[in-house]
Amino acid sequence: MIFVGEGALLRRAVTHAATRGHPVDLVCSADPLDAAAAAAPHLAAADINAHAAALARACSDGIVWSLNNRQIFREPLLRADGLRILNIHNGLLPRHRGLPSVAVLFALLHGDTEYGATAHEVDAGIDTGPVLAEHRFPIGPEDRYHQVMLRGIRACHALFEQILPAVAAGTSHPARAAAAEPSAYYGLRALDRLDTYRDHPGYARATDLGPFAAHAPELTRALLPHRG
């Protein structure tokens, strides 16, 4: 199997798969150390889609995992023979499509009472493929951004561990289409609406980034004009 993404979530998934005896054929990320625990080949690719043929050749079981990955899969990778691309998304789909860093903020501003992680098939849309499984948790009335984001990351890893055996065995199947529930997309443009929430009673907790401020520069920049 091949892993695409970045950060601690990717590294933990690679380590878990390797220690459970699953083949780690290639790790595609910015940091070569992400592949070290599995003693696997590493590929730093600014555009993963440009390496579709190489991924198809390298993958021994046809499974490609996307974890904490900001790259969008497109053709020719999406139609590469024998590859099944699965994404572990920080958010409940399709309610929290897009960037998790933005989705968590708006989940709190919109008064969502639960959040979580979703495993889904990757298709030509953004977070629109059939859902395989979910890991949900409640959002408390006093929960802050950094708390929900951390629980979301932990839910992603727990979900990966949960579905890995079935995916590897070829027995995992879509539970439902992602479009079966109300959908919302949170990209960088959604941050342009932040000024309208300045007087929102949940604004302080929704923008309390905590240690994640260093990992979400797009949010830090968007919030600067609103802090006084």
Automatic annotation (TrEMBL):
One of its GO terms (molecular function) is methionyl-tRNA formyltransferase activity. Residues 71-160 form the Formyl transferase N-terminal domain. Pfam families: Formyl_trans_N. It comes from the Bacteria. Keywords: Purine biosynthesis, Transferase. Its EC number is 2.1.2.2. The keyword Amino-acid biosynthesis does not apply. Pathway: Purine metabolism; IMP biosynthesis via de novo pathway; N(2)-formyl-N(1)-(5-phospho-D-ribosyl)glycinamide from N(1)-(5-phospho-D-ribosyl)glycinamide (10-formyl THF route): step 1/1. PANTHER family: PHOSPHORIBOSYLGLYCINAMIDE FORMYLTRANSFERASE. This is phosphoribosylglycinamide formyltransferase 1. The lineage of its organism: Bacteria, Bacillati, Actinomycetota, Actinomycetes, Kitasatosporales.
